[in-house]
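ESCALATION

Customer reports they have been waiting on this structure for their group meeting. Please prioritize. Original submission:
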Amino acid sequence: MDYLTSAVIIGAGATAVMDVWAIIRQRLLGLAPPNYGLVGRWIGHMPQGRFRHASIAAAPSVPGERLIGWIAHYLIGIAFACALLGIWGLAWVRQPSIGPALIVGIATVAAPFLLMQPGMGAGIAASRTPRPGAARLQSLVTHAVFGLGLYAGGWIARLLHSA
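Update from on-call: job pushed to the front of the queue and completed.
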């Protein structure tokens, strides 16, 4: 199995695990799932040179923002899987181990903390939200779950490769 095919399987699988976690989190803890439409809105404003917003929710909507956000969500997951494979190589797919997957999964929390949240008006590491500590913890847990998803995706890719 080649690098790109493995990355797509692993990244899309890990992202799906993260989405299942969002549903579980909502049902068990009453926490709202991420609104990828707002991510799409943020991305949709970028071609006009607008990369930062005081509040992305107050920004004008963008046609197709929900679809843009969901596609970006999965492409970002695939990009993070590319990082995992770029560091540990295809040898990791032949024998997935949890350590590298969790390292990459947890490290990906830097993207929302340092890029997405500030750009969307929530501040660095959700510092402008009503409960920054709770938001940070939820981000960290979600990205650790993504890491578990990378591990599961690695096993799926391995099984498909050996089939």
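Sent to customer with the following note: The helical segments are 3-29, 36-45, 65-88, 91-94, 98-107, 110-120, 132-162.
Escalation resolved.
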